[in-house]
Design goal:
11 strands; alpha/beta
Length: 1026
């Protein structure tokens, strides 16, 4: 979606290139079709634009370039299509288009000057007083002013205004989902404005003809008026267009009647009513009405709700953008002039009303007045100028019906435009036009909604709902301007946006407008404000759920892009923190393109990855397309493979990214992938791949194993943990019961336990019980049992899992491939933890044991912190946590006693001073014997120590030791659903070492159905606490 619309931001790769007529094409791409045509007709103008605005080096446009563009079939077809569309729709030519006054100012004033001016201004002054009334007018004016500024900036941004009006603005800037949501709210607001004006006409008729007042007369007469107006619009808008001047004259005449009557009142000297309550223009009356006089049913919010619809016609210019000579300029000038003129008129009317009559008369609390109809009848008859009987009432009725008629013309067209964009499928039946080009279906639907709303039957109830809908639309228009200015989107190009002071102005005005819209909603009625917000959110959620992707972009995507970039930059140095660490998996898979296109999907490794998704880390599924060439055909095949991978990921519910690399070989391609995948803090820290299982007859078996080992070494060199799955074809797809056995051979940062916990959270493995088999040498059975109980307790307290623990005591020779460089890995691990947390005083006492030796260190710490225990008891026998524990904890001694330990890692009873030197986990420096090999006597480097260790002894001495260890593992885990075990460190890169390594691992796991080999980096850090 970031390739479309306002969300697009270029990611640049600089290449020295030059294309013929490129400058002219750039102009064509950035200009509207009419500007392109003008450029082709006037080459001199193009040259001036080019030399003045397209760069520091002016480029000459040749005549052949102009001819080439003029002959371009695509551009000409766009221009011809635009002209033909204008002729079909009957749009006026440029000669007949209107300017700011006739096209924007007049219709905007007509839409704002509604029935509330004539029937509720006196009522508002009577309750709110002059001062608070002026505050209401000013607050509403500022909201309209800010929204107009935002609308004008959107209109001047270039190409965002069309016949779609404000809906087109929002949808093409903030995106289709938000645009459709606000568009529907705006359509509902216009429909409710038609209802408000229709009810105002009914109320005026009841004032003029009291006999028309009968039970439910507002609903009955309102429904009749609404049906008549809908039939008029269905008959064609030509009649309405021709009567436009007449309606405008009626509105101006009615306003003149009110002004003249207010200035010249009282009209009838000697009338008791007028002598008592109507004083004429009087400073005493002005002072008396300055303060508010609310009753129990009215407050500042209700008065604001009654007045605010008078500023809801400010988008009329945008609704008529297609008939304007210069839409950006005309909309800005005409709308600003209209709201400023209306502001002055409203202030003058309120001051006049507050100066001519007592507030009790204006409230309708005097004798003989029972409701709003009686009040209006008395006020209009005694104060408003009537040159002939009922002239003011007739003017109010005609003015109200004319505005209601205009709303019924605009609302169906807006709804049809939303339906035509095919954003919401339920509205699709409303998209077709009639044979006359009219939105008949949308008109029918709008009428049905309006007829239902008419049944509300009271202006005071419709006005706040109307205000809420308009305020939602205005709030999001201001938000649209603010977001686009903040993001500096390339598609956002309003006037003067390149100057910093204007950018600050756009940000300030848009933010102020958005905040005031929300504030006005809350002032009017917090409950209705919450309801309007809830409806908008529901609309947004529903449209987002049902929407099909349109062909334009979204500023919301731009917001995500900016946040994503900032987050990546911030995460780059923080992703090693223990509370944030999680496996970020790079999945290396092989896809058969022919089978994939044929619907045959081999995605066992992706299915297994999906079972690890409880880690909530991201994943990248990468595949290598082996090809000696990197031409268009290879790239097309890579795109097909990527589509297949995306389909499999969606099918398995994997959230992540898919990548396909074209390379000469799988080994080389995976090398590229491991090195280059990721950005910032989103760099994979774990590689998941399939363990090679080759038959004896496979002639490529040795090469496959070598390729696998090279990938393994590349991943480890890049500090990435490796997960290799053996037996992928048998990965279960249904719920299994049994055990997950963890063979914790060596230091791994607790990674095996964490992975097993992730698996146990998935529904397929949830019913499996976890068993931990911990390998140790040279410790007593008592200490081994205490360490096992401590491990079980610690895992349960940290809410990881309930496990059965068995400590297996082995001879050193059996696990030599795991322990030959153990001291170096421990030292690197502790050094990493010290660098990560230099303030930590005790690195070995971590939330869960990070290595096997930690069990004994933690146990020793437990012993020292408790009172002395009796001989023969386990150090943890008196711990109350284990009194009700049902976990099985035991020790198995599988030592033969024939093999002398080469390296004792624990301070047990069998330790001897004659043992060979070794590195202790707590020693800050390597052993002196190793350091002595350095020429200068300095401590050996990391690579040097590893070299010396490997030189000292060969870890793979006899297949018999491997077979014996394999028998021990097989005897306990043969029937386990999954075996998770450490992968030995790679001990060489020669062909012999590679084959011996693979043979060792295969022999070790012979007879096991499914095995997950895990090789950690020592940099896995996590803290899962309760």
């Amino acid at each position: 979606s970031s390739h479309f619309g306002s969300s697009y931001s270029p990611g640049l790769a600089f290449l020295p290139c030059r294309f013929p007529a490129f400058d002219l094409v750039v102009i064509a791409a950035m200009a509207s079709p009419s500007q392109v045509r003008s450029a082709m007709e006037s080459p001199s103008q193009v040259q001036s634009v080019e030399s003045g605005s397209l760069g520091d080096e002016p480029q000459r446009l040749h005549s052949d370039s102009l001819q080439r563009l003029n002959s371009n079939s695509h551009v000409n077809s766009v221009l011809d299509q635009e002209s033909a569309q204008a002729q079909v729709e009957g749009k006026p030519s440029r000669a007949k288009k209107k300017g700011a006054f006739a096209g924007v100012f007049v219709p905007t004033c007509e839409n704002m000057w509604g029935v509330l001016i004539f029937l509720r201004f006196y009522y508002i002054v009577g309750h709110a007083g002059i001062f608070q009334t002026l505050c209401i007018v000013t607050l509403s004016f500022i909201v309209a002013l800010c929204t107009t500024a935002s609308m004008s900036s959107i209109a001047s941004s270039g190409g965002l205004v069309s016949a779609g009006g404000p809906y087109h603005m929002i949808s093409r800037t903030m995106g289709p989902v938000l645009g459709a949501s606000v568009g529907i709210m705006y359509w509902l607001a216009i429909t409710m404005l038609a209802v408000l004006e229709c009810l105002g006409a009914v109320e005026s008729l009841s004032m003029a003809v009291p006999a028309m007042q009968f039970p439910m007369h507002m609903q009955a007469l309102g429904s009749a008026f609404m049906a008549g107006l809908a039939l008029t619009v269905w008959g064609g808008i030509n009649i309405v267009t021709k009567l436009g001047v007449f309606f405008a004259l009626v509105v101006f005449y009615t306003l003149f009647s009110f002004y003249f009557g207010l200035v010249t009142s009282p009209h009838h000297v000697g009338d008791p009513l007028q002598e008592q309550w109507i004083t004429g223009l009087s400073t005493a009356t002005f002072s008396k009405n300055w303060a508010s006089h609310y009753d129990s049913e009215n407050n500042f919010g209700t008065m604001l709700a009654l007045f605010y619809p008078c500023f809801t016609g400010i988008l009329s210019g945008a609704n008529r953008a297609d008939v304007l000579k210069d839409p950006p300029k005309n909309i800005r000038q005409g709308t600003f002039a209209a709201i400023c003129f209306s502001f002055v008129m409203y202030v003058s009317l309120f001051i006049l009303w507050g100066s001519v009559a007592d507030y009790r008369f204006l409230q309708g609390t005097t004798e003989g007045i029972h409701d709003e109809v009686d009040l209006g009848r008395v006020v209009v008859a005694n104060i408003v100028w009537n040159p002939f009987p009922y002239s003011a009432f007739i003017g109010i009725i005609i003015a109200s019906l004319s505005q209601s008629l205009q709303c019924l013309i605009v609302a169906p067209r807006l709804l049809q435009q939303i339906a035509r964009d095919d954003i919401l499928g339920v509205l699709k039946p409303l998209a077709p036009l009639s044979s006359r080009g009219e939105p008949t279906r949308a008109l029918l639907f709008t009428y049905v909604v309006a007829a239902l709303l008419v049944l509300i039957g009271k202006l005071e109830l419709v006005a706040p709902l109307l205000a809420m809908c308009f305020l939602v639309a205005y709030a999001f228009m201001n938000c649209s301007c603010f977001v686009l200015t903040l993001l500096k989107s390339p598609a956002w190009r309003p006037e003067w946006i390149g100057q910093r002071r204007w950018r600050i102005w756009y940000l300030f005005v848009a933010a102020l407008g958005f905040g005031l819209c929300i504030a006005v909603m809350m002032i009017i009625n917090p409950v209705w404000a919450a309801v309007a917000g809830f409806i908008a959110v529901c609309l947004y959620s529903f449209i987002n759920f049902k929407m099909q992707a349109p062909g334009w972009g979204s500023a919301v995507d731009g917001i995500r892009y900016r946040f994503a970039v900032k987050s990546l930059m911030q995460l780059e140095a923080r992703h090693d923190q223990c509370v944030n660490w999680r496996p970020q998996v790079l999945i290396l898979c092989k896809i058969n393109l022919t089978e994939g296109l044929g619907g045959i999907k081999h995605h066992d490794i992706l299915r297994f990855s999906a079972q690890l998704r409880k880690s909530r880390g991201f994943c990248v599924v990468a595949c290598v397309l082996e090809s000696d060439t990197r031409d268009a055909a290879a790239m097309k095949m890579a795109a097909d493979q990527k589509a297949i991978i995306r389909g499999i990921m969606d099918e398995e519910g994997i959230e992540g990214f898919a990548e396909v690399v074209v390379a000469p070989s799988w080994r080389e391609g995976t090398n590229y992938i491991i090195q280059l995948t990721g950005i910032g803090g989103l760099i994979p820290n774990t590689v998941l791949l399939d363990w090679p299982e080759c038959s004896a007859q496979d002639t490529q078996a040795d090469q496959v194993k070598k390729d696998f080992m090279e990938v393994l070494q590349t991943a480890l060199a890049a500090n990435k943990a490796v997960l290799a799955v053996k037996g992928l074809q048998s990965i279960p797809t249904e719920i299994v019961h049994g055990t997950i056995d963890i063979w914790w051979m060596i230091h791994d940062g607790g990674f095996l336990i964490l992975l097993s916990w992730f698996l146990s959270q998935h529904r397929i493995w949830r019913s499996c019980h976890l068993r931990v088999f911990t390998v140790a040498e040279n410790v007593s059975e008592t200490r081994a049992k205490g360490a096992a109980e401590l491990l079980s307790r610690t895992l349960r307290e940290r809410r990881l899992c309930d496990v059965d623990v068995e400590v297996i005591l082995l001879d050193d020779a059996l696990i030599e491939p795991y322990t030959y460089d153990w001291t170096l890995r421990v030292e690197e691990r502790h050094r990493f933890l010290r660098e990560l947390n230099p303030n930590a005083r005790e690195m070995h006492l971590e939330p869960i044991p990070l290595e096997i030796d930690d069990l004994f260190d933690m146990e020793q710490h437990e012993i020292q912190s408790k009172a002395p225990i009796q001989a023969g008891d386990s150090p943890l026998h008196n711990n109350p946590v284990f009194e009700d524990s049902k976990n099985d904890v035991k020790v198995s001694d599988c030592r033969t006693g024939a093999e002398g330990g080469r390296r004792h890692r624990h301070g047990g009873a069998s330790s001897s001073a004659d043992d060979a030197p070794y590195l202790s986990a707590s020693d800050p420096q390597p052993a002196a014997a190793l350091a002595a090999d350095e020429p200068d006597g300095s401590p050996a480097s990391s690579d040097g120590v590893k070299h010396l260790l490997r030189k000292a002894s060969s870890p793979f001495e006899s297949i018999e030791f491997c077979q014996k260890l394999g028998q021990i593992i097989n005897s306990r885990s043969q029937h386990a659903q999954l075996v998770v075990m450490n992968l030995p460190d790679v001990w060489g890169s020669e062909d012999k070492d590679v084959l011996n390594y693979m043979q060792y691992c295969d022999t070790l796991t012979q007879g096991l159905e499914r095995v997950l080999f895990v090789h950690s980096t020592g940099r896995e850090i996590f803290d899962i606490t309760g």
